[in-house]
Amino acid sequence: MAVSDVGGSANPTVAEILIKLGTDPKTGLNPGQLQERLSKYGPNALPEEKKSALSAFLAYFWRPIPWMIEAAALMALVVGDLGDLTIITSLLLFNALLGFWEEHEASNALDALKNSLALRARVLRSGKWEQVDARTLSLSIMPACRLNRSNGNWTVCW
């Protein structure tokens, strides 16, 4: 939902947005409103698409350079040179296994990094400030932002 859709103008005020969304600035969202908005707008996260290990491995055989190597292996098979066929297919398989392993390890490292950076937010829910997982943020939830680090004051920001 675009900001102009929420407030009715290109630069709506915070009060206009809160009125339009039905959010009380003193209490924030209650659990019912939160569930309704999460079901309507979805979680505050990008969807992750995981592909199977088999399809990731087979992808190493479906590219232009492997095609040329596969053609060379096919020619070695046609002429009956089993020595070259063995060497070519061994190198092709080794390349695919090495690439798959490196991609797998990089994916594991990225997952570990994502888990170590699990974002949390401080929000106003049912009149109380709470620490929540950032995935549970939804439209019109009031997060707290630290604006002044010297005195530690929190202020509401949208």
Give the topology, please.
Blueprint: H1 3-7, H2 14-21, H3 31-41, H4 53-58, H5 64-79, H6 82-116, E1 120-125, E2 128-133, E3 142-148, E4 153-156
Antiparallel strand pairs: 1-2, 1-3, 3-4
Compact overview of the structure:
The chain is 51% helix and 15% strand. With 158 residues, the chain is of the alpha+beta class. Strands 2-1-3-4 form a four-stranded antiparallel sheet, with no helix packed on it.
Give the tags:
158 residues, alpha+beta, single chain, 15% strand, four-stranded antiparallel sheet, 6 helices
Describe this structure in words.
The protein has 158 residues and is of the alpha+beta class. It has a domain at 53-116. It is 51% helix and 15% strand. The chain contains 6 helices and 4 strands. Strands 2-1-3-4 form a 4-stranded antiparallel sheet, with no helix packed on it. α5 runs antiparallel to α6. Residues 153-158 have low confidence and may be disordered.
Q: Which strand order does the major sheet show?
A: 2-1-3-4
Distance between the termini: 15 Å
Q: How is the main sheet built?
A: 4 strands, antiparallel
Would you tell me the structural class of the helices and strands? alpha+beta
Q: Please compute the radius of gyration using only Cα atoms.
A: 27 Å
Q: What's the count of strands?
A: 4
Mean of the pLDDT scores?
A: 80
What's the helical proportion of residues?
A: 40-55%
Beta-strand share of residues = 5-15%
Judging from the principal axes of the Cα atoms, what is the shape?
Answer: rod-shaped
Please tally the helical runs, counting DSSP H or I stretches of 4 or more residues.
6
H and E order: HHHHHHEEEE
- Stretches where pLDDT falls below 50 for ≥5 residues? 153-158
